[in-house]
Amino acid sequence: MLNYALLLHAAPYSHQAALSALRFADTVVANGHRMKTVFFYHDGVHNASALMAPPQDEVHLADGWKRLHREHGTELLVCVAAGLRRGLLDVGEASRHGAMSHSLEAPFELTGVGQLVDAMLTSDRMITFAP
Amino acid sequence: MMLHLLNRSPRSTATYQDLSEAFGADDHLLLIEDACYAAQPSAGAALEPFGGRVSVLQEDLVARGLAERVDPSVEIVDMNGFLALTETHERCVSWF
What we know:
Chain A: Belongs to the DsrE/TusD family. Chain A: Its EC number is 2.8.1.-. The complex is a heterodimer of chains A (about 130) and B (about 100). Chain A is α/β, with parallel strands linked by helices. Chain A has helices spanning about 15-30, 60-70, 80-85, 90-95, 115-120; strands spanning about 5-10, 35-40, 75-80, 110, 125-130. In chain A, strands 4-3-2-1-5 form a five-stranded parallel β-sheet, sandwiched between helices. Chain B starts with a strand and ends with a strand. Classes of the chains: A alpha/beta (about 130), B alpha/beta (about 100). The interface of A and B includes residues 9 and 17 of A.
């Protein structure tokens, strides 16, 4: 069994990369490996939006990531600097910045790039998906 | 021994050039997303630098209507095959 980490740079629905990453993550767990961490970086932070509401007959990417967390304990880490720039704020950051609402909730977590380095060091494989 | 993951169509000539310069003797290339277009025989010399050590992702071929148009030198793999390539190659670098 190998520990996998994914680094996702791409926004949902704009490019294929987010869907490719989710399909790969599902394949990882289906084959008995551990899908340890997904790190959302740059435009990839939009995958973590709690307000995402795609049509019901389309893939719901945020729900896909949450399912991985629920069923396989996958950490869903969102770069805080990339998130704040793009309006991805949890309750604490929304309050700190005086925003009218928040847009990011557990199991997604706002973290620094130190967590990305940690994921690289503690995983057997790091696979990058980008636009 | 490294796995290279490429998602750009062969029109992104600079990316293919950079990749060919970094491609080692024991490395392997997997074409995903729009890089599937490079697996067609009509794509010409795009894959020449990679010495036949090239695979292409079946799901992405099918999504583009290219499943029957793959050069015989390119191996077709499904998602499990993609995963297997990451199992056998300790490092994986993405080109985009």
